[in-house]
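Blinded run. Sample ID left blank on purpose so nobody reads anything into the name before looking at the predicted structure. Input follows.
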Amino acid sequence: MIAFLILLLLICGAYCIVVTRSMIRAIIGIELLIKAVTLLIIAAGNMTGRTATAQSLAITIIIIEVVVAATAAGIALWVFKRTGTLDVRNLRNLKG
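Blinded prediction complete.
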């Protein structure tokens, strides 16, 4: 059951990144992929009996995820101020 949930999160995250043209949806897709990897690490640690290692890796991934989300949100805000939209097709028009 947990494998199905992890696979579903991976598919949803990849779909959000590949199909969408909105930067916010792409950030949400990246977050879904990171959540799926975190769940996979925790499940693997539980199956192998190394829960302490899995928990420490999960905490590290969560900290990195927060930094990535904050940086991506900052970039999205900058793009919105420059272009007035969050469409990724408009990124080619940015200069300087």
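Unblinding after everyone has recorded impressions. The longest helix spans residues 51-83.
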